[in-house]
Design brief:
Distance between the termini: 156 Å
Strand content: under 5%
Helix content: 55-70%
Order of helices and strands: HHHHHHHHHHHHH
Number of helices: 13
Mean pLDDT: 76
Length: 338
Amino acid sequence: MQNQHAKDTETMRELFKECLQMKMHIEAFPKTEKPEQTMEILAWSITEFVYDPENNLTFETWYTRYEDLFLVDASKLDDVAKVRLLLRKLSTTVYNKYMNFILPNRPREYNFTTTVEKLKQLFGLQKSQFSLRYSCLQLTKPTDTDYTTYAAEVNKHYENFKLNSLSLDQFKCLMFVLGLKSEANFEIGTRILTKLDTEANTINLEKLTNECQRIINIKSDIALVENKSRENQVNRLQANKLKNNHKPKTLCWFCGAMHYVRDCPFKYHKCEDCHNIGHKKVIAKRKIQQNQTAITTSKIIAMVRQEHFHNHDPTVYTQRTTSQLHSANMSTLKSTMC
């Protein structure tokens, strides 16, 4: 027993000596604590961030995965190095969008915390708080989803719901808007959602009710104005119709158109042919032609009468007068057409 105890003691001493030598060797070995090497090691451990909000791939979810790596493993890096490491792991599209967003400033002008907040704002869920809460209340379990996955989905929606920051008035307003499901309330519901988003901290049921009544009053006023405008338009159409029905029985002697003489635009017009005032050029030609026709007719009647006195035959007088008048009128018409 004593021999065994002595052997065990000797073995322990040897192990202790080896451990002591190893510790001394490690302490004597030069440590590599250069920031560039640390940054390279950390960069290999971080995947690239690609923004895809439809699949819940936001900057907040990505940063949550690597938050300890930036705050603990990269604790020996300064803020400028952390910002460089963070921007290095952004995709090209995300990086370009962020750079355009902060112009004319440069990334080095912001510390790490400010950079993270700006990225969360720029590449977060592009949904209103009401939309997130509404999605939470509409959540159901799909038939092909196991209970563990469903529980994780419920937990995620609950966190987005932010129940701790929801006041009693906000919850009442939320239930008020959820009840506006009919098509008749679609426009009112849309405007109420805007008010909920802009006045989330001060909104209550009384303000929502007053806003709904205000929207109804505005719609009534608009309908009243539209009806009055439509009524005036109908009256104008009817007046124009009545005006068109009252047409004169004869043509205007100033211009030959179908309107009253008092409405003729050629009432004070000076004719280019006869230089008289009160008619246009076509009427002057027509008057000359009418005068020529009258002179020709009177000459024919005088000739026939003279011949009748010699023959004393009324039948021949009538036939010859009609025939010659017809020939004279036709010749006058041909000259007019030419």
